[in-house]
Amino acid sequence: MLRLLFLTLALLLAGCDSRPQFGNTDISEADYARDFALTDHTGKPRTMADFRGKAVVIFFGYTQCPDVCPTTMTGMTEAMKLLGEGATKVQVLFVTVDPERDTQQLLAQYVPVFHPSFLGLYADPQTIAKTAQAFRVFYKKQPGSTPTTYTVDHTAGSYVYDPQGRLRLYIKHGEKPEVIAKDLKLLIAGK
Q1: pLDDT averaged over 10-residue windows placed end to end, the chain, 191 residues
Q2: CA pair distance 188, 181, nearest whole angstrom
Q3: What are the DSSP calls for the chain, one per residue?
Q4: Can you give the pTM of this predicted structure?
Q5: What is the Cα–Cα distance from 101 to 152, expressed in whole angstroms?
């Protein structure tokens, strides 16, 4: 009888957990990736504060990436479609890890192809290095056949912030758009 009482109590307490069940990794307690000071592809200086009131997805990549970056951006495009009208409450940011080649003009051509609201962010190489370090993002040039045909190895996941600007989730590369959209809906709803 006592075991039955404890089991019932445990089940009731488990049912009282009001935390949302995210499909992606909850990193709400992380103490990094708090802010940035970069320029968007329209030439406007940006920080996290500019996007308060929206869920924000930040991905570090580069325009000449052959696979990870276009796959991630396409997945975010699909997630935005699944959000419908809710997509207006989401901001996707693409931060370059290749500031030598990813000029403002190139980012302005590349990033909006995936979705007109997406923004490309850039800065000088030192600022990008400091920002990547603050976000615990790894990147390293890999030599190509010529000095300008190098590739860049980089962290392939994305960070997600709630509308209050708090870091909440880490999306691993290749996550399904349906899972991303579900998590974004929860964050938009204030979960």
Answers
A1: 50 54 93 96 97 97 95 97 97 97 97 97 98 96 90 95 96 96 95 81
A2: 10
A3: -HHHHHHHHHHHHHHT--S---SSEE-TT--S-----EEETTS-EE-GGGGTTSEEEEEEE-TT-SSHHHHHHHHHHHHHHHHGGGGGGEEEEEEES-TTT--HHHHHHHHHHH-TT-EEEE--HHHHHHHHHHTT--EEEE--SSTT--EEEE---EEEE-TTS-EEEEEPTT--HHHHHHHHHHHHTT-
A4: 0.88
A5: 11
Beta strand 90-96 pairing with 158-161: unpaired
Distance CA 76, CA 113 (A): 12
DSSP, residue by residue, 144-168:
-SSTT--EEEE---EEEE-TTS-EE
Q: How far apart are CA 121 and CA 129, in angstroms?
A: 13
Q: ∠ CA 22-28-32 to the nearest 5 degrees?
A: 135
